[in-house]
Each structure stands twice: as structure tokens, then as C-alpha cells.
Amino acid sequence: MGLITEVLLLPFAPVRGSLWTVRQVLTEAERQYYDPAAVRADLARLEQRLDAGEIDEEEFDRLEDELLDRLEISTRRSTGNGDGTAR
Description:
Order of helices and strands: HHHH
Helix content: over 70%
Shape: elongated
Distance between the termini: 27 Å
Radius of gyration: 21 Å
Number of strands: 0
Structural class: mainly alpha
Number of helices: 4
Largest sheet: none
């Protein structure tokens, strides 16, 4: 960007900074949400809840499917950008 563009966009600097911060927080939240270790730990806790009788088989199956979907997405994200193409 040129100097004139920077001067003209200066009033929007707080907004640009806020958007950068939001993007960084979102990126970190997605990284944690799709972390394979965290998903596997959630699967183990889910099985413990089933064994303890806290949830029934139907609830277990539904939650397990959601966690397995997250794990699959995590695997795709680590091998490419999630749409079948390499980074």
C-alpha cells in the first residue's frame, strides 16, 4: 500500500486490528476443537459416561458420530486444506 492509502485508511486501523484479533482467536479455537488428541480424549470420556450409565446407547451413538466426524475433519485438515487439495 502506498503512503496516501495508509493515511486515508488510518481511521479504520482499530477495526482492522480488531478483525485480525478475531481471526486469530477463531483460528486457535478451530485448532483446539479439531485437535485429534482432544477428540480422542472426548471419545474416551464419552465411553466412560456410557459405562457409568450417565447416557444411553442412543445418546452415545449420536455423540460418538459427532466426535468421529470431527476426527475425520481433523485428518483431512492435516493432509490438505479440507477440500481435497494439498496446501
